[in-house]
Design goal:
- By secondary structure, the chain is of the alpha/beta class.
- It contains 43 helices and 37 strands.
- The strands form 9 sheets. Strands 1, 10, 11, 12, 13, 14, 15 and 16 form an 8-stranded mixed beta sheet that branches. It has a 6-stranded mixed beta sheet with strand order 8-6-5-4-7-9.
- A hairpin with a 4-residue loop joins β12 and β13.
- The radius of gyration is 33 Å and the shape is globular.
- The N terminus and C terminus are likely disordered.
- The structure holds iron/sulfur cluster.
- The site of iron/sulfur cluster has 12 residues, from α3, α12 and α13.
């Protein structure tokens, strides 16, 4: 890599390399593609804040209105007022804004204040010399490589019809391009009548971007010259402890200066205020550094001294005599230059460029006026003045314009040029410690070197991300899966550049631990391993002795088995991550309309202007939030409501009606999801944020950038001069890569580091037997002071569980089957452990499970004293997904800390921390091992460590029989005869011969009188039943699709009619009935049918009561007298789908019911799956299958639609979490799958039910 960038230092003398002609290193051939030409734009777009001294006094520009709320600044926007977006909470873990496709920039503070962007106005810059020419960006063509030989044969254009040729010359020749790869050819193709259009990529002209969908950050790329391995490793494993004082002071000073730029204030007093605010917001970093706020203040003030000098010198309309713009590469004979910065365009702008395969977050983009003074000898000696937007990077270190800084700034010139649609010939580097601004002109040679280096890095990364060949490769699914595994780490090709083994560099490398761990893991071998060694350890013959010693020090404690364990699990995480990367690419490779069909985008959206009433309501809401304790600490940024454009015409999709397609609830997007906002094709992901509210017709976003319609229109005119005014149409995409797997890998790696968690390495990886001290007999618990009051209501098996846990020195496993009182036991355990002075991490896969336990703790405390919990709880996670009752335990609900000590008390003080843990979606990763929970792994290895909760008090014996026979091998018992015989008796029971509404229905269709399906299902004797929809007639109740989501309209209708009858006619309380489906789209459909009832006046909310319609995941922790399950899948092909095969979720669904369980579905379809066949064997054997009579779904519809007052669904409940992605492939035989064993061995269906119920 260093070699690739050698040209950087000497790049001011263009030194084109001669064209080479060598045999190609890449044989074979291939085909296909998709292409588009890059846009062209003249002129400059204005989106400015005037920075000059007029700023504080002049009214020549528009100052944004501000309100102060809590500790944050609120900006009121045209067309987009600020709302109560809790961005702190929403941004939990969101340092990943910088987590790009794979390589992140170093963390920067999230901008607490955004610059306001002023609508187009004349800039105050002087213009001299020639008028700026219309800007025409380099065109680019997206191609798929057909064959690699002396030239690349590629195809591009719609349907990949255009055959073209790319010649790679000079250092481009060695690019690792292969058939099937996607490349961007940047530059014009030459057209001749006799040959295919062609382009030469040489040292002097044009660029080749390999795998352009991998967006490398400019920061990572600028770090690559020293060691290309380092940025890749630090993106794979995101360490949370690589924090240093220099980094913290640098980040804080950045923020102070950004505030100065955006607020146009530079007085000492004001700067000191900013320092205080930044310190308060950065208390977490100070805590991590163990530094007091006093020390930090001193450090920051020292470093901020230069800011006023900077302002005096550079913030001006015209360059001042002392405003030197340095050029560290200039010769003494070169002209001198002066700089003025009259205006700010934007701060912390995140720019993605699929054209160059780059992205970056620019500290600031400023309007720069540069006056070039010609050398004394030249004539005439009139200065030439140029102006325009320039990336402005703030550097707090001492070294001036080092290679890395130059490379980063130069790459930003490419990005800024794309964002602003204008030429950006250079960038600016400001060094705070030397009050120097350095100009970094963009140079062809340097850019070429950097792009060649980018391509080399992308060549490694693609092995993990997945080659793009899916455009044209018709692999079968098995082959595809095997390929997936091979490509990401089990195959023969390494995905990491080789180590540099440089004594000096490696000694100082911040990622040395990770580097050595990967080296060990990917070279480990046991007698049974057949995996190829992708790495090699350093030895005396190939590395300095000190490095060999370091390697021993870092990995000497590991065994080959442990190394292979890391390799396997690290690989599985990459599989999971691969899906996310693929989804991210869709933002620019798939049009909004097509992505909407996949449910991952809202297309055709416009900003909704607010009415006066709404504005008042927003204001009240904001004031309330700002003054309430819950509002403190919230960060308010920009908030907008978007609706569909009236002009948006959905394309026809699968027969869905237009109103269905306009319905914003018909997709994968939900409240709390991270999103990006784009204007296709002009501005890609120019704002990022979260969904804060979602209804069928509107989506409300909290985002990090202002949506300035005038500025956007001006920018659109650059690409399309015909666009003068009119509607700005946005696309809102789900940002799936948010978060990535870097943290998970770091957690995994922590077990294996030399100074890592040895105890858990032994217990989890080596499966060392857990130790127990002599256990306390359950009867003694009642007299122990710490436990007596908490166990008195527990039954024997619950007390045994508590006793086992208290005697565990390592771990104990409590297998809590459904309804056996897990929540009660966990709640008791938490209280006992806290009373013993211990700390507790409470975690589950779902928010609802975590919150159910916290609510129980709360309820019990209130019952006793009314004073709430006697100990502290810290609830971490996305506020939108946390139950309102327990939001009081989140950080945002606490008083904002003003000192490091206060923050430490808030973070470290509570003995109970509650959070969700990761759930896995990729089916291959799940089958490869990620679906095996820790509970399962440990219980398989050490059945002695498991204690069962056997007596359940929820389900009657028929409902219990389902789980017992299919899953729990009859170990589950009813806690009492009363529970066993429980039946659902409806207050206004149906039938009985009187003239009920049912009779009215039956008079219209006499044939159904004797076999009324509603009356049958409502009977107390019907306790567990499968309702077969096949008997309605061929295809009547078939499933259908909305995009790639599955629903079943007839089944939804039946479910809703049953619920309406139970609640509206027969008096069942709304809280006593629940509807569950594994399919999110079905949940939404059922909810919308119930909502339709509400909108016609049928449903009146009763306090605390609602009919809950839930996914299986969300139903965890709930129980209902009656549960109605909608299985959805019904088709002629026996397509059951992976969701229905997921017995963990099925079991959760079935075991929510106390007295009645009604399961709707197609027997014929579901029975085609072997696992479900066993379920039907049981149901049929017991006579629990009910065949619906023909016409059942319509016979009562009229009566049920006419009245009803009691059915309603909270709109808030529309948020559904933890959906499992569909589109699953069959299992492949591979080297990483393992069979189940141990305590659960021999049970035919159980895969990992323990984990969901533990
Ligand atoms: S330890 Fe050396 S080889 Fe490994 S990443 Fe760091 S600098 Fe590169």
């Amino acid at each position: 890599m260093a070699g690739l960038l050698q040209g950087l230092d000497a790049s001011f003398e263009p030194a084109p390399l001669p064209a080479k002609s060598r045999p190609s290193p890449f044989p074979s051939r291939h085909h296909v593609s998709n292409a588009e030409a890059g846009p062209s734009t003249p002129g400059t777009t204005s989106k400015l804040i005037d920075l000059t001294n007029k700023a504080s006094t002049s009214s020549s520009y528009q100052t944004p209105k501000k309100q102060r709320i809590g500790n944050t600044t609120l900006q009121s926007e045209n067309g987009g007022p600020v709302a109560d977006v809790d961005m702190d909470e929403l941004l939990a873990g969101a340092e990943d804004w910088d987590f790009d496709d794979w390589v992140p920039s170093p963390k920067k503070p999230s901008p607490k204040k955004r610059s306001s962007v002023i609508p187009a106005q004349p800039t105050a810059k002087p213009r001299a010399g020639a008028e700026a020419k219309a800007f025409v960006p380099d065109p680019y063509t997206r191609c798929v490589v057909d064959a690699v030989g002396e030239q690349l044969d590629v195809r591009s254009g719609k349907d990949l019809k255009h055959q073209q040729v790319i010649y790679l010359q000079n250092d481009w020749y060695d690019t690792d391009v292969r058939p099937g790869d996607i490349v961007n050819a940047v530059g014009p193709f030459e057209h001749t009548s006799s040959a295919k259009p062609s382009i030469k990529i040489t040292s002097q002209s044009n660029l080749l971007i390999l795998h352009p969908d991998i967006l490398l950050t400019a920061t990572a790329l600028s770090n690559a010259p020293q060691c290309a391995r380092k940025p890749l490793l630090s993106s794979l494993v995101r360490a949370s402890n690589d924090i240093s004082p220099a980094l913290v002071w640098g980040n804080m000073l950045h923020e102070v200066m950004q505030n100065c730029l955006s607020e146009k204030r530079w007085e000492e007093e004001w700067i000191n205020e900013q320092i205080e605010e930044v310190l308060l917001n950065g208390l977490g970093m100070l805590l991590a550094l163990n530094v007091s706020i006093v020390t930090a203040r001193t450090e920051l003030r020292k470093r901020a001294i230069g800011l006023q000098i900077f302002k005096e010198r550079y913030i001006s309309d015209v360059p001042k005599p002392d405003a030197i713009l340095s050029d560290t590469r200039a010769r003494s004979s070169d002209s001198a230059a002066l700089l003025a910065i009259p205006q700010l365009h934007e701060i912390e702008e995140d720019i993605w460029s699929p054209k160059y395969g780059l992205k970056g977050k620019v500290d600031a983009t400023v309007e720069a006026v540069i006056a070039e003074t010609p050398p004394a000898s030249s004539s005439p000696s009139i200065p030439a003045i140029t102006s325009g937007p320039r990336p402005f990077e703030i550097k707090t270190g001492r070294s001036l314009a080092g290679l890395e800084h130059r490379a980063q700034t130069m790459l930003y010139t490419l990005l800024a040029s794309e964002r602003y649609g204008t030429d950006v010939p250079d960038g600016l580097l400001y060094y705070t410690q030397s009050d120097t601004v350095v100009r970094v002109p963009r140079s062809r040679n340097e850019i070429r070197g950097l792009i060649v280096a980018r391509n080399a890095l992308a060549g490694y990364m693609i092995k993990r991300v997945g080659r793009e060949g899916e455009f044209n490769r018709k692999r079968n699914k098995d082959e595809e899966e095997r390929k997936d595994i091979e490509e990401i780490g089990m195959g023969a090709e390494t995905f990491l550049p080789p180590p540099i083994d440089d004594e000096h560099a490696c000694k100082r490398c911040y990622t040395v631990d990770t580097c050595m761990l990967y080296r060990y893991a990917y070279s480990a071998k046991t007698s049974e391993t057949k995996l190829p060694m992708l790495e090699s350890p350093p030895t005396a013959s190939n590395a300095p002795e000190s490095l060999v010693n370091t390697y021993d020090l870092k990995t000497g404690h590991l065994t080959p088995e442990q190394g292979l364990f890391f390799r396997k699990w690290e690989t599985l995480l990459s599989l999971e991550e691969r899906d996310l990367v693929r989804f991210r690419r869709e933002l620019w490779t798939i049009g909004a309309g097509d992505r909407e069909k996949k449910g991952r985008c809202f297309a055709g959206m416009v900003v909704k202007p607010l009415t006066g009433v709404e504005q008042d309501a927003e204001k009240d809401e904001k004031n309330a939030a700002g003054s309430s304790p819950a509002g403190e600490g919230r960060v308010y940024k920009f908030s907008y409501t978007f609706v569909r454009s009236v002009k948006w015409a959905p394309s026809s999709q699968g027969g869905s009606s237009e109103s269905d397609q306009r319905n914003l609830l018909n997709g994968h997007l939900n409240v709390g999801d991270p999103i990006t906002v784009s204007v296709e094709p002009h501005l890609l992901a120019f704002a990022q944020g979260f969904i804060t509210d979602l209804t069928p017709v509107a989506v409300k976003l909290g985002i990090d950038h202002k949506v300035d319609l005038e500025w956007i229109r001006a920018r659109m005119r650059k690409d399309d001069p015909q666009f003068v005014a009119g509607e700005v149409v946005f696309r809102i995409d789900k940002d799936e890569l948010f978060g990535g797997m870097g943290r998970m890998r770091n957690n995994l790696a922590q077990l294996f580091y030399a100074n890592g968690d040895r105890k858990r390495l032994e217990l989890v990886v080596d499966l060392r037997k857990p130790l127990f001290s002599p256990s306390i007999p359950p009867e003694s618990l009642a007299i122990e002071s710490s436990s007596s009051q908490h166990v008195k209501n527990l039954n024997l098996s619950q007390k045994e569980a508590v006793s086992k846990v208290l005697s565990a020195e390592d771990y104990a496993l409590v297998l809590g089957m459904p309804g056996t009182g897990k929540t009660t036991v966990i709640s008791a355990l938490i209280k006992i452990l806290v009373a013993q002075g211990k700390t507790v991490l409470l975690t589950s896969y779902t928010h609802s499970a975590v919150d159910t336990i916290l609510r129980k703790l709360d309820d019990e405390a209130d019952d006793k004293s009314g004073a709430g919990l006697a100990f502290g709880v810290l609830r971490l996670g996305n506020l939108e997904k946390i139950h309102p009752d327990v939001r009081k335990y989140t950080l945002s609900a606490k008083r904002k800390a003003e000192t490091v000590e206060q923050l430490e008390a808030q973070w470290m003080g509570p003995p109970v921390v509650a959070a969700t843990c990761l759930s896995v979606k990729n089916p291959l990763a799940r089958r490869g091992g990620l679906e095996v929970s820790l509970f399962r792994r440990l219980s398989d290895a050490h059945p002695d460590s498991v204690v069962d909760l056997r007596e359940q008090y929820r389900m009657n014996e028929d409902i219990m029989a389902l789980s017992n026979k299919l899953i729990y091998s009859d170990r589950l018992k009813c806690g009492s005869a009363e529970v066993a015989n429980r039946k659902l008796v409806l207050p206004n029971a149906p039938g009985k011969g009187d003239l009920t509404w049912l009779d009215a229905s039956h008079r219209r269709q006499r044939a159904l009188e004797k076999n009324c399906w509603l009356a049958h299902l409502a009977s107390p004797e019907t306790t567990a039943v499968f309702v077969d929809t096949d008997s309605l007639g061929p295809g009547v109740a078939h499933d259908s699709r909305v995009g790639d989501l599955v629903q079943n309209e007839v089944e939804a209708e039946l479910v809703v009619q049953l619920v309406e009858a139970l609640v509206g006619k027969w008096g069942l309380k709304k809280k006593d009935v629940g509807v569950i489906s594994l399919y999110r789209q079905q949940v939404k459909l059922i909810k919308s049918l119930l909502l339709a009832g509400k909108s016609t006046g049928r449903a009146v909310e009763e306090e605390g009561e609602e009919v809950e319609v839930l996914t299986a995941d969300k139903s965890q922790g709930r129980d209902k007298e009656c549960v109605v399950v909608s299985m959805v899948r019904s088709n002629d092909h026996g397509q059951v789908g992976e969701l229905v095969k997921d017995w963990r979720r099925m079991n959760v669904s079935f075991t929510r019911a106390r007295s009645k369980l009604v399961i709707f579905g197609s027997r014929k379809t579901l029975k085609s799956d072997p696992l479900l066949a066993q379920f039907f064997e049981l149901m049929e054997g017991r006579g629990w299958v009910y065949e619906l009579p023909i016409g059942a779904h319509v016979v009562h519809k009229q009566d049920l639609e006419r009245d009803e007052e009691n059915v309603g669904v909270e709109e808030d409940d529309v948020c559904v979490v933890d959906e499992v992605v569909e589109g699953v492939r069959p299992v492949v035989e591979d080297q990483i799958l393992k069979k189940a064993a141990g305590v659960l061995k021999g049970r035919p269906i159980l895969q990992d039910l323990v984990s969901s119920e533990s």
